[in-house]
Amino acid sequence: MEKTIKEFKEYLERIRMYQEAVATLSFDGETVAPVGSIEARAKRAGFFGLEIFKLETSDEMGHFLKELAPHIETLDDVLKGEYREAKKAYDEGTKIPAEIVREMSELQEAAAAIWGQARAENDFDKFAPYLKRLIELQKKVISYRSSGENPYDLLLDDYEAGMNMEVYDAFFDKLKEAIVPLLKKIKESNKEIDRSFVNIPVDLASQKAISKLIAEKLGYHLDRGYIAESSHPFCSGSNKYDVRMTTRYLENDFLSSLYSVMHETGHAIYEQNVADEIAQTILGSGASMGIHESQSRLYENYLGRSPQFWEVIQDELLNLLPEALQQISAHQFYEAVNVVAPSLIRVESDELTYNLHIMIRYEIERMLFTEDIDIHDLPEIWNKKYEEYLGITPPTNAQGVLQDIHWSFGAFGYFPTYALGSAYSAQIVAHMKKELDLTALIKAQNFEAIKAWLGEKIHQYGRIYTPNQLMEKSFGEAFNADYYVDYLTQKYSKLYALI
Which of 271, 286, 279, 277 minimizes the C-alpha distance to 226? Predict the structure, then answer.
């Protein structure tokens, strides 16, 4: 048995090495790769995607899984996790023809590059053929995988094990019940919060210095990381020793890059904080996208939008800002970054209405995989949803249906995890406050203690446990959205003097 386990782990390491190579090349493709390399990069992505698929679905992998199956209860938690992940990939992959895997990998690489161009040029028609083919291929893959499940349910489960439309519908209904009346009260409160100073120009060199300052202060190790620029902020890494992030800089809204960096720093710290013994295994990443987003939303919102954060960061920040912004108080900054105002762009939306952006994407994705929709109708569908939920209509497709990168690499089912992650973060912070004085730690700029606590409860485990197993193990309870509803209600009722 020891020999089988040793060989199984060595085999998984081969898979991981390919995955790490793909992650590095993908980051390059999103940041510095030349435009003329799209076709060559797509071909390369198809090759690596197929090689990983072959390893995951080989007879040799099948043999390992068969040998380990009778002993699964005697294995340690790490081996159980590796077995679970390998078996899921094997069971699903052996149903899918190899040629589809290659085409999907090639298409994702090309589509992401074309999306960037289409967004910059406000040209949905340029991206539409790629999106149409991505959806067609995804539906074909689902037809091989499905045993009668709803197609969209399978995609939702890919990003968060155990989630489906029924569970998400109940979750979003609970959020709507809280958010809609709260928004109404905020509008009726007539409290005016000045945010005009946010648009005072800040040069890009200063914004880059702010990004470095914030990321390092929170605990991101730049000796094992890198902050680049891309049209859509993201975090990517091959393993804990090489975790990279991107942001985008808007001269007339320096807070956009500041908060995208805080968000991606939450992701990056999670990756950098995985236990050494699993760092370069197939378990060396986050438990799920929902849990991963809990960390990014925790750093962005619970730390970055707290009054204490602005009190302690102001002096260092002011040195990097124009003279006009140096006259703004910490309290003014705090109110400005928490103002509630419907907006067009998800990544720049306020914390309360952010969930409405997610609900719009959830409903559209659901339509894409359960109804027969013409791709060219998507801009109109998108705009109508924004009018319905937020009372605003995107003036351009770049600010509308083209604003997110996720569909370009086939990540259908991902968006709901942003809202789920926000809810997870409220639950996690509630438990943190039972053991730590979070307010005092922020005031003392002791972000290392916060990172250490998160490392003990969440980060170190990587993907060893499923989301439910992790929540039960670390906090003694399953996911509970009530924490999030209470948090939003209390925060914004206080901010807008509703109580």
Answer: 271
pTM: 0.93
Average per-residue pLDDT in the chain?
95
pLDDT band for 414, please (50, 70, 90 cuts). very high
The structure tokens 């390369």 sit at 44
Q: Is 142 found in the same domain as 74?
A: yes
Do residues 364 and 282 share a domain? yes
**Is-contact 256 300, C-beta < 8 A?**
no
Q: Which residues contact 10 (CB under 8 A, 6 or more apart)?
A: none
How many C-beta neighbours within 10 Å does residue 300 have?
23
| 291, 161 Cβ separation under 8 angstroms | no
- The mean pLDDT value for 375-401 works out to 96
Domain holding 72, by residue range, is: 2-148
Under DSSP, is residue 18 helix (H, G, I), strand (E, B) or coil? helix
Percentage of the chain exceeding pLDDT 90? 94
Domain limit, last residue, from 99, 122, 148: 148
| One domain, residues 188 and 143 | no
Q: How confident is the model at residue 340 (pLDDT cuts 50, 70, 90)?
A: very high
CATH number at residue 470: 1.10.1370.30
Same domain, 179 and 135: no
Residue 359 shares a structural domain with residue 436:
yes
Q: Model confidence at 146, in pLDDT bands (50, 70, 90)?
A: confident
Q: Which of 264, 271, 335, 365 is catalytic?
A: 264
Residue 179's pLDDT is: 92
For β-strands 225-229 and 242-247, DSSP reports them as parallel
Residue 499 has pLDDT above 80, yes or no: no
C-alpha 270/C-alpha 278 separation (Å) is: 13
CA distance 455 to 445: 18
Gyration radius of the chain's alpha carbons = 23
Helix (H, G, I), strand (E, B) or coil at 196: helix
**Is 160 among the domain residues?**
no
- How many domains, the chain? 2
**Looking at the structure, do residues 172 and 223 belong to the same domain, yes or no?**
yes
Q: In what order do the strands lie in the sheet with 242-247?
A: 225-229, 242-247, 235-239
CA–CA separation, 64 and 38 (whole Å): 37
Percentage of the residues of the chain whose pLDDT score is greater than 70:
100
- Of 90, 121, 148, the residue at which a domain comes to its end is 148
Q: Which two tokens stand for residue 50?
A: 């197929």
Model confidence band, residue 490 (pLDDT cutoffs 50, 70, 90): very high
- Clarify whether 311 is annotated catalytic: no
- The Cα–Cα gap between 115 and 120 comes to 8
**Domain-located, residue 180:** yes
**Domain for residue 154, yes or no?**
no
